[in-house]
Amino acid sequence: MKTPNLTVEIFMSVVKWFLLFIVVNNLIWLLVVHSLVGGNGANISQTQDGEYNNQELVNG
Predict the structure, then answer these.
(1) 4 phi/psi in degrees, rounded to 5
(2) What are phi and psi of 12, to 5 degrees?
């Protein structure tokens, strides 16, 4: 009975660390982007599609 419990505990631990890693990674990335762009995060992630969408909005 100990082996399944140990497996579940290890699995949950791995899941927790994985989620924590994702959250920390996203926060660091947001801070880096924010500091690079100077508060305007839309510019750095703007692709050709984003520019096209902006032109559509401007043209009506």
Answers:
(1) -60, -40
(2) -65, -40
Distance separating alpha carbons of residues 15 and 12, to the nearest angstrom: 5
Q: Are 33 and 21 in contact (CB under 8 A)?
A: no
In three-state secondary structure terms, 34 is helix
Going by C-alpha positions, the residue among 41, 43, 22, 21 that lies closest to residue 33 is 41
Q: Tens-of-pLDDT digits for all 60 residues of the chain?
A: 566 789 999 999 999 999 999 999 999 998 888 787 765 545 445 555 555 555 555 554
Tell me if the pTM is above 0.70.
no
